[in-house]
Design brief:
Oligomer: single chain
Number of helices: 12
Number of strands: 4
Strand content: 5-15%
Strand order of the largest sheet: 1-2
């Protein structure tokens, strides 16, 4: 035990002598004083989560870099936690509100016009009057506005863009550096993806900052491919306007419907989604989608988590397709 204790004491002495033999250079002493000053400055700035300000500490360090000769372009302070008017989430929310309140122009094509023409005799007096007024040239825009209150009519007569997903921020105690929203658009035939993207870009533009030097988050409108890749430019290809109803298709269709569902009218409709007709119509082949399945008009669950079709409706649909295909291909 005595030997071990002596060894420890000897080692300690050697260290002390070594430190005294090599005094700290003046440059190192200056660096230590600077480090201590910086540390003291940071400690004295309240940066606690609840009431502190991390930005103040970041700005203090940024000022030290400026004083040391670093250019402003090399100094960036990110993630502020103090409230400021140029908040990315607020800016995005405002942009989405602009999209919500924007209505694309009213338009009809050969299919949607036939759809509404056939509805006139089937509708209640007020709707029938609005349909007649809407079908006139030029259309009665007051009637269009009343009809547009119905979501199905609105999406039939207008391109629609609605927010479907939202994300933003990186911490509960810091202002967001980024906020992002997905906006799904159902585009009327005859328009390009880029045309709609540019329209949304104009809609979300914040004009009050157009000539201002105030820094603010940038709202960027991009096009999302089916593989989720984001592009700054959408396709310039215009989709084809659907062809008008053809007698050799709708004639047999009306006969089969009269046999299977007496008293039911046939209405040509335009899907507010999409189909492979976008390719076949473009190739010069008039394309129609004919459905023989029955469903409730107010219970459409396409793309939902609970998509469904009644068993009997499916079975009747099979019967319908067999009879209709024989009728439409008969000489």
């Amino acid at each position: 035990m005595g030997l071990n204790k002596s060894c420890r004491m000897l080692l300690f002495c050697v260290l002390v002598v070594s430190m005294q033999a090599q005094p700290t250079p003046l440059a190192d002493q200056a660096a230590r004083r600077l480090a201590l000053d910086i540390f003291k400055q940071l400690i004295e700035i309240n940066t606690t989560d609840s009431v502190g300000n991390v930005t103040a500490a970041a700005e203090a360090m940024a000022q030290r870099f400026r004083d040391a000769g670093f250019p402003d372009s090399d100094i960036q302070v990110l993630g502020p936690s103090s409230p400021r008017p140029d908040n990315a989430i607020y800016e995005l929310s405002d942009a989405l509100t602009r999209i919500e309140n924007y209505q694309f122009p009213f338009e009809l094509n050969p299919i949607t016009r036939a759809y509404y023409e056939r509805q006139v005799t089937m509708s209640k007096p007020q709707r029938a009057a609005d349909l007649k007024a809407m079908l006139r040239q030029p259309p009665d825009m007051a009637a269009v506005a009343r009809l547009s209150k119905d979501p199905l009519d609105n999406s039939t007569m207008h391109t629609t863009c609605v927010a479907t997903r939202l994300s933003g921020g990186h911490a509960n105690n810091a202002l967001p550096q980024m906020a992002q929203a997905n906006v799904n658009c159902r585009i009327e035939p005859g328009h390009s993806l880029e045309e709609i993207r540019l329209t949304l870009e104009k809609v979300v533009a914040d004009r009050k900052f157009a000539t201002s030097t105030i820094a603010r988050p940038t709202i960027k409108v991009q096009f999302r491919e089916n593989n989720n890749q984001l592009l700054d430019h959408g396709s310039d290809r215009h989709s084809f306007v659907p062809p008008p109803p053809r007698k050799d298709v709708f004639g047999p269709l009306e006969q089969v419907v009269a046999q299977m569902w007496p008293g039911i009218s046939v209405l040509p409709t335009m899907s507010t989604g999409a189909s492979d007709g976008v390719y076949t119509n473009a190739a010069g082949m008039p394309t129609y989608c004919v459905s023989g399945e029955q469903y409730e008009r107010d219970d459409i669950r396409a793309h939902g988590k609970d998509e469904r079709v009644e068993v009997e409706s499916f079975a009747r649909g099979v019967d319908f397709y067999y009879v209709f295909l024989k009728a439409v291909t008969a000489d």
